[in-house]
Amino acid sequence: MKGTTMILTPLTPLDAVNEILSAIGEAPVDTIEDSGNIDVDNAYRILKSVNRQVQIDGYTFNTISSYPLIPDRFTKEIAWDSTLLRVSTTEGNFLRNRGGLVYDVTNNTDKFDGQIEVEAIVLVPFEELPEAFREYITIKSARLFATRYLGDELAMNALMQEEQIAKIAVFNYELDLEKPSMANNTDISNDLKRT
Questions:
Q1: Closest CA to 141 of 21, 37, 60
Q2: pTM of the full predicted structure?
């Protein structure tokens, strides 16, 4: 990579893969499905992995505070939703995927008498992510791809700088939506009441 090239915010996984390929000087492609190109396959695999890794932390766009898990009325089993990255119950039960079914590790069962409300972190499709996240995920993927398959220190440093800028944009996006304030912080508001 000669100099630095600012990655454009991709709209689709294909756009993202092409940005990743351009970061190492590769030509764009028309498809990511059955491309027969090992670089395309590796770029797409890294993109999907980074997308999952980033989203698992839970953000305003992919955290659902009241997500219903509804058992089949005959089997009393709940099919695991493959978009679930993490779930937590208000009772503190630990739930996980076991053979495609929701399994309550705490109570050692996959049978449920009624609906369970959980807080869920769900995997949002790449093209539905907020712009700041699409850009961050693409740049992070490009850096990982360049590190693994190119080894050009100049390119990696440029991508690392772009990644830091994109990470700040993600942080600012979340701050703008959450509108945190000192008054919303219970520790600070309690301290203010005492004075």
A1: 21
A2: 0.82
